[in-house]
Every structure is written in structure tokens, then in C-alpha cells.
Write the C-alpha cells for this entry.
Amino acid sequence: MRILFSILSIACIAGIFLFADSPVVSTLSNFNPYSLLHIPLYGILTILLIFSFVPITQLPINSLNQKDQINQINHYFIVGFIALIVAIADEIHQIYIPGRDASVTDVLLDLVGIILVLFFAFRLFKTKTFSRSIEYLKKILISSFCLRQTRQTR
């Protein structure tokens, strides 16, 4: 499973760099005047990197011994650092693309997406076991789907 997420992480990073010169970016800029799409883009990258690097255990972080807790927290910092390096490298890459320029604001928005995902992922793994959290998310999705179905039938 980790190999799948590693491949998806590499594909996401490659897509960020390859689509920087794409006409799709020009089209999206009309709908994205404040570059707010950087937040979910780098949030998705961070999620993929988390599933690539952070060992997912059935135990909550609280039940791990201190050495394992520090080791798992270090994995989150490594993931955040990699995602931030990709964000900075992407902005440097955009300097060399005609019609594009680098922006510190874009890197800050990327950082917001990275930090949000790291915060929620850390809280998720700290407070509940992973399997319980997935079951909870499934219940939310099923209940929202059922609610939507009942509204459509009315």
C-alpha cells in the first residue's frame, strides 16, 4: 500500500511541475484570483506523503512509548519539510517559465495547506485509532449520502 501512495506522491509532484506551463493553469487562474487552489493542492500532496512515510499503526499515538511517539512525530516533520521543499522548488521553477512568476504568497498558501493537513492527521492518529477514524468517516459519508437521497425524493 505504501508503494501505491509513493507512486501517487511522485505523480502529484511531477504534475505540479509539468502543468506549470500548461494552458489549464491559465484557464484556472480566471476562477482562482487569489491562488487559493494552492491550499487543497498541497494538502492533497501532504496526505499522499503522509501515507507514503508515516507508519500507520492500529495503536493510537498516546499508547506508544516515548521513543516511538517522537519517531512518529518526526515523520510528520519530514513530510511537511518535503512538501514545503516542493512548494519552494515549484515557485523557483516558475521563474523560468514565460508568463509566470514566483510568488511568496503562493508558498505561504502552500504552507497553509500543508499545516492544515498535518494538524488534522496528527490529531486523527493521536486521539483515535486509524480504523475507528475510518469507520467514523464512512458513517458520515453514508449519512450525508442518505440525507441527500431523501432530499432528492421529496
Remarks:
- Residues 2-129 form one domain.
- The chain is about 80% helix and 0% strand.
- Residues 34 and 106 are 9 Å apart (CA to CA).
- The chain has a mean pLDDT of 80.
